Amino acid sequence: MALKILVLGGTGEGRLLAEQLARDPRYDSLLSFAGRTSSLVRPTLPHRVGGFGGAEGLADFLRAGAYQALVDVTHPFAARISSNAVAAARAADVPLIRLSRPAWERRPGDDWIEVSSMAEAARALGDPARRVFLSIGKQELAAFAPAPHHHYLVRAIDQIPLTLPHAKLLSARGPFALHDELQLLQSERIELLVSKNAGTAATYPKIQAARMLRIPVIMVQRPLVPAAHEVQTLDELTQFLEALHTRSKRLGE
Ligand code: NAP
Prior knowledge:
The chain is an alpha/beta fold.
């Protein structure tokens, strides 16, 4: 029998994993998206879109679908769903595994100001008006409303209305290449970069470009999420699923 797996996605790794599982007859997996981006590129593999209705809704979904594993491959800043996953897996008695990509670490030449929230990042921009690259997505732009005197370049996947007075939207979806990031920072005369510490290779070139151009980075640290069984790579994750599949076969589930 194929192992039934619910994959909480919304990331490149989530998509990669789901594609890998879909090709493997040992698994019967469903990829779940929150539905945040209006330009969601729907995969051709089994998927669903939309929230579950909190931890209880997710636990009900796991029970109703007789899922045998819950895989959290959400973004490190998607703290609510990761926390719901822990509670739901416990309530529904389903094994949970989380992919937690390592955070980026400061390297020689990096000029980072580490902050713990977007509000703190906005305060760290300071009083003089600066040209700021906001590479943080669309959800937390309101945190910069108290600092309207800066000139912002906002990069987000969707076309979104901007309420900041001096702001320009760059609608783009990663991965981004170093050469393009260098060109962007230079042509926009960026003086400060605000970034979440996402830890993914797909968006790291902006950090490299900032280092090369000696542009300071306001680096927002990751939110805390409740402990879960974590792995750092997709290989480790698939090994865990293989072991679960072998066990469930032995038990005749
Ligand atoms: P969040 O604050 O942790 O979650 C908010 C709510 O969205 C959750 O309570 C849940 O609704 C729903 N949700 C989140 N991920 C879901 C999923 N994979 N499938 C079904 N429902 C989901 O998350 P967020 O920061 O808004 O991020 C939303 C999605 O975008 C996540 O899937 C994440 O992987 C992706 N993403 C986030 C960021 C970021 O910087 N936050 C960056 C890139 C991608 P219910 O409570 O109703 O179940």
